Amino acid sequence: MAGDAVYGDVHLYLAESAGNGRRDWLHALDVIEGLQPRAVVSGHKRDGDEDSPDDVARTRRYIEDFTAAAEKADGFGDLYEAMVGLYPQRVNRGVLWNSAKAVMA
User: Using one digit for the tens of pLDDT, what is the confidence trace for 67-99?
Assistant: First the structure.
């Protein structure tokens, strides 16, 4: 059970990830990967999605993409649009909107 550390095809809640938050999250993903799980139950995912260990890498990539986009963004709108462009199929864009606003504040 990965709880909130691993997400499925859902935008991540990163509104409280300032400071070392995203780096610490990536470290938690390292720990999970080190366990070499055969299944990972993501805390947030679409109904019916598999409990795939691939979600760990997808969560990592999302955090890295969010961090890179935040560094380039001129404001929260830019960050939001960049992430929607990278992840158009992910659900719960309201969480992305709130995360972008909080991180860019």
Answer: 999 999 999 999 999 999 999 999 999 999 999
**What's the Cα-to-Cα distance from 54 to each of 5, 32, 64, 74, 78, rounded to whole Å?**
13, 11, 16, 32, 28
Q: Which long-range contacts (CB under 8 A, 24 or more apart) does 1-6 make?
A: 1/41, 2/32, 2/40, 2/41, 2/42, 2/43, 2/55, 2/56, 3/43, 4/43, 4/44, 5/29, 5/32, 5/43, 5/59, 6/32, 6/40, 6/42, 6/43, 6/55, 6/56, 6/59
Indicate whether 1 pLDDT > 90. Answer: no
Q: Residue 2 — very low, low, confident or very high, per pLDDT cuts 50/70/90? A: confident
Q: Which two tokens stand for residue 92?
A: 């719960």
